[in-house]
Amino acid sequence: MFRAWEATAAAALHTARRRDDGAGLARMHRVVAGAKDFQGRNTSAISHCTRALGERYVRAGRLPEAIQAWRDARQTYIELGFDKDAASLTRRLAGAGAEPRP
Predict the structure, then answer these.
(1) CA nearest 56: which of 43, 44, 65?
(2) pLDDT digits (tens, 9 = 90+) for 9-60
(3) What is the radius of gyration, based on Cα positions, of the chain?
(4) Comparing C-alpha atoms, which of 32, 36, 37 is closest to residue 13?
(5) pLDDT higher for 61 or 22?
(6) According to the lineage, what is the superkingdom (predicted)?
(7) What is the predicted pLDDT for the residue at 93?
(8) Other C-beta atoms within 10 Å of 22: how many?
(9) How far apart, in whole angstroms, are the C-alpha atoms of residue 15 and residue 8?
(10) pLDDT of residue 67
(11) Whole-angstrom Cα distance, residue 76 to residue 89?
(12) How many other C-beta atoms lie within 10 A of the C-beta of residue 42?
């Protein structure tokens, strides 16, 4: 059941990313985090929560906090070997002007 939950949330996350929907990204990262938590994948859940927090900071106009949250999440992704997620955050950081474009 939790794998199906995660797969559905991941598909919605992909759609939000493709549409550059910050609110959708925040919500779906939170949902993915919940699915991972129920599967006992706590570190991955934390990285998705941190990434969701970054999106929420952007919506609140708090870009410095968003950048820090994204950097924290990216570091966790790197430590877990989630290269695609880390690369996605690198692009997000570049889009925010926090780092050079990859």
Answers:
(1) 65
(2) 889 888 988 898 888 888 888 888 888 888 898 888 898 889 889 988 988 9
(3) 13
(4) 32
(5) 61
(6) Bacteria
(7) 93
(8) 16
(9) 11
(10) 95
(11) 11
(12) 11
Mean pLDDT for the stretch of residues 68-73: 94
Q: How far apart are the first and last CA of the chain?
A: 37
CA angle 5, 15, 43 (to 5 degrees): 50
If we measure between CA atoms, which residue out of 31, 80, 81 comes closest to residue 55? 31
**Number of Cβ atoms within 10 Å of the Cβ of 12:** 17
Render 9-38 in DSSP notation, one character per residue.
HHHHHHHHHHTT-HHHHHHHHHHHHHHHHH
Name the nearest CA neighbour of 30 among 2, 8, 51.
51
Q: How far is CA 83 from CA 38, 62, 78, in A?
A: 23, 27, 6
Residues 6 or more apart whose CB falls under 8 angstroms from that of 37 comprise: 45
